[in-house]
Write a structure and sequence with these properties.
- Belongs to the asp23 family.
- The protein is an alpha+beta fold and 157 residues long.
- The protein has a single domain, classed as Cation efflux protein, cytoplasmic domain (Alpha-Beta Plaits, 2-Layer Sandwich), CATH 3.30.70.
- Helix content is 29%, strand content 30%.
- The protein contains 3 helices and 8 strands, in the order ββββαβαββαβ.
- The strands form 3 sheets. Strands 5, 6, 7 and 8 form a 4-stranded mixed beta sheet that branches. The protein has a two-stranded antiparallel ribbon with strand order 1-2.
- Helix 3 links the parallel strand 7 and strand 8.
- Helix 1 packs across helix 3.
- The radius of gyration is 20 Å and the shape is elongated.
Length: 157
């Protein structure tokens, strides 16, 4: 089964990943097809391994994920907050994250890129051409979620 692929060239003359489809590794002994969801799960797991990442996904996807985790027997969505484009030999990854307060976002982004690229290239053989990261929020760990901003005193009873 074959699928139509787009072919694009960037201003630097390098070819960009084609939208849609999946990575294909062809050898003299046969063909291996890597689905987009596989690359997405690898990227999600690799991003979560980096210290300073509180969660993956924007507000809506985290809310859906929290509801999903409460359902008995439901599994964790390892590709939450991750979208990928996989071509014949290349992949591009977009990751949405929430960071821990106090962490250097630029250092965290570099660490995520390094970990995601290494994991995908090692496990799939696909060349990762870019990893785009969007920081949606900062998680602030406070001692009490119930305390009001006025130091525990309320204005009304």
């Amino acid at each position: 089964m074959t699928s139509a692929k787009e072919s694009t060239t960037t201003s630097e003359g390098t070819s960009a990943v084609a939208k849609g489809g999946s990575g294909t590794i062809t050898t003299s002994q046969g063909k291996t097809v890597i689905a987009d969801v596989v690359v997405s799960k690898i990227a999600g797991l690799a991003a979560r391994e980096v210290n300073g990442v509180y969660a993956l996904g924007g507000g809506a996807s985290r809310a859906v994920g929290a509801l999903r985790e409460r359902i008995p027997g439901a599994s964790v969505n390892h590709s939450q907050g991750v979208s990928v484009e996989v071509g014949e030999t290349q992949a591009a990854v977009d990751i949405d994250i929430v960071v821990e307060y106090g962490v250097s976002i630029s250092d965290l982004a570099s660490g995520i890129r390094r970990n995601v690229i290494a994991a995908i290239e090692r496990m799939t053989g696909l060349q990762v051409v870019e990893v785009d990261i969007t920081v949606h929020d900062i998680h602030v760990a406070d001692g009490s979620a119930e305390e009001s901003p006025a130091g525990g005193l309320t204005r009304v009873e």
